[in-house]
Design a protein that fits this description.
The structure holds 2 protein chains of 2 kinds. Chain A is mainly α. Chain A has 10 helices and no strands. Chain A has a single domain, classed as MetI-like (MetI-like fold), CATH 1.10.3720.10. The relative contact order of chain A is 0.13. The chains are: A mainly alpha, B alpha/beta.
Chain lengths: ~250, ~260
């Protein structure tokens, strides 16, 4: 968390809050609600129970799809690294999937699954996060230090120990980086898909607030989304990053 | 029964890279309990020979005979240490393959001899280049090898560490009967350490000379007449390997 909470950032945050408050004072709250109004809206959704309920729904969808994409991404990377034919066949396809805008996927998902509560967000998260996981792990595999593997083989190290004690630790930094980037993608995709094609979750609440012109609620939900993302990125993943790179120079 | 003196024999070894012959009909015998130094100019195929002899790479043709199934160990040109393991864990990593992981006393001895006793729990990035090279060296001895291959172990070391490493190799070898096969391009290093020097010539000409040094290692100095004479001999061999440039004298005079 130290990386995030720096003195200059606090100063910037205060300035932004002041601009926000100043701007809100001169504008209609439908256009820009004040900090107080946004906080009030946050309190309302918290006390009514919608906050926890919607948050848990979005989190559940994200975790399911994210877990699936992490697992598939790793397996895919290992297969394509191991088999040249698979690499030559599927590597461009992954780039195509990655290059396709999320809005195309969500439109297709609506056509294929309808306005399905779970399926559309899960599909979108999976299809958006998978290439991120794959690319990072695959790159990690390609940049593997083969000298270390040769050393281990020269000393008659059994294959399973080479995998466990060389391949895995070599890949951990790439994996953690993949997890971090992919989570941000997954979280945003989940909300996006819910916004377009779901009747529950934070994305749906955002869409409701939007159609009701409840800008204060829009701000309240945005604050929830950002705070959770920051907690994951700067607390959970930061701890993990520190742990896996404790042997590194930087 | 006669005692087998040779621990490793290379017969008629050939190796090419992209059509370029690096080793041609090369023959080499490594004697048990000796320090053998392979000396040669850059590009003569020293590392290729090292890799073939140690089994890291296959020859295109030829025969490699290992007597009594010797255990090999390796000191690579740049240290190949696992960065996520501490100094001691790096030793244990290779020891495990031979059931030697419980030999903590051996590890302690090696750490003490190499001056790394205080750094057992340090990660490689916390060690200097010279310390990493020493760690690489003691890892090779931690597996109780019969034959240690060292690929230019002194290459990037300062004078003090060079002397330290040379003494360490010499002491362990003389007290343990471990065979050492070392590559270097430094004739002085070879003369101070080796029992036998093999000179490898470039352009796949093979081992063109083999020099046996009989003087005890502890007392050797380059200034000793006997050692100095050998150095002169090696210098002469190397000078003969360098093509004569006198033919260009007239051109140099005209063009400058």
């Amino acid at each position: 968390m130290k990386n995030f909470i720096t003195k200059p950032f606090w100063v910037l945050l205060i300035i932004l809050f002041l601009i926000w408050e100043q701007g809100a004072a001169g504008l209609n709250s439908l256009i820009l609600p004040s900090i107080g109004e946004s906080y009030q809206a946050l309190k309302e959704i918290a006390f009514s129970g919608i906050l926890v309920e919607s948050f848990l729904i979005t989190l559940r969808r994200t975790l399911i799809a994210y877990g699936m994409s992490v697992l598939s991404g790793i397996i895919l990377a290992l297969l394509l690294y191991r088999f040249q034919l698979l690499k030559r066949t599927f590597r461009p396809l992954i780039t195509i999937v990655q290059a396709t805008p999320p809005v195309v996927w969500v439109s297709l998902a609506v056509v294929w699954f309808g306005v399905a509560d779970d399926l559309t967000p899960i599909f979108l998260i999976f299809i958006v996060s998978l290439p991120v996981i794959f690319v990072n792990i695959f790159q990690g595999l390609e940049e593997m230090n083969t000298d270390l593997i040769e050393m281990a083989e020269a000393y008659s190290t059994p294959r399973f120990r080479i995998v466990k004690e060389i391949y895995l630790p070599s890949l951990l930094p790439a994996l953690v980086s993949a997890l971090s980037i992919a989570f941000a993608f997954a979280w945003k995709s989940s909300v996006f898909a819910e916004f377009i094609a779901s009747s529950s979750g934070i994305g749906y609440q955002l869409s409701r607030a939007n159609s009701l012109m409840a800008t204060d609620r829009l701000f309240a939900w945005t604050i929830v989304l950002i705070l959770f993302m920051l907690f994951v990125e700067y607390y959970l993943l930061e701890k993990l990053k520190k742990h896996v790179s404790r042997w590194k120079n930087d | 029964m006669t005692k087998i003196r040779k621990i490793l024999e290379l017969k008629n070894i050939n190796k090419s890279f992209q059509g370029l012959k690096v080793l041609q009909d090369l023959n080499l015998e490594i004697n048990k309990g000796e320090i053998g130094c392979l000396l040669g100019p850059s590009g003569s195929g020293k590392t290729t020979l090292f890799r073939i002899a140690s089994g890291l790479e296959a020859a295109d043709s030829g025969q490699i005979i290992k007597n009594n199934n010797p255990r090999f160990s390796y000191v690579f040109q740049s240290p190949r240490l696992l960065p996520w393991k501490t100094a001691e864990e790096n030793l244990i990593f290779v020891q495990k393959n031979y059931g030697l992981e419980k030999e903590a006393q051996l590890r302690d001895l090696l750490f003490n001899l190499s001056g790394l006793a205080q750094f057992k729990d340090a990660y490689p990035h916390e060690l200097s280049g010279g310390m990493q090279q020493r760690l690489e060296l003691i890892r090779a001895f931690a597996v109780k090898p019969d034959l240690v291959f060292l690929d230019e172990p002194f290459k990037s070391l300062d004078m003090k560490t060079r002397i330290n490493v040379r003494k360490l190799i010499s002491l362990i070898q003389s007290e343990s009967e471990i065979t050492i096969f070392l590559i270097t391009h430094d004739p002085e290093e070879a003369l101070l350490l080796a029992d036998r020097i093999y000179i490898l010539a470039a352009e796949a000409k093979g081992i063109i000379n083999e020099i046996e040094i009989t003087q005890a290692r502890n007392n050797r100095k380059i200034a000793d007449p006997e050692i100095y004479q050998e150095l002169e001999k090696i210098m002469e061999i190397f000078t003969n390997l360098v093509s004569d440039l006198e033919y260009a004298a007239e051109d140099i005079k005209n063009l400058f």
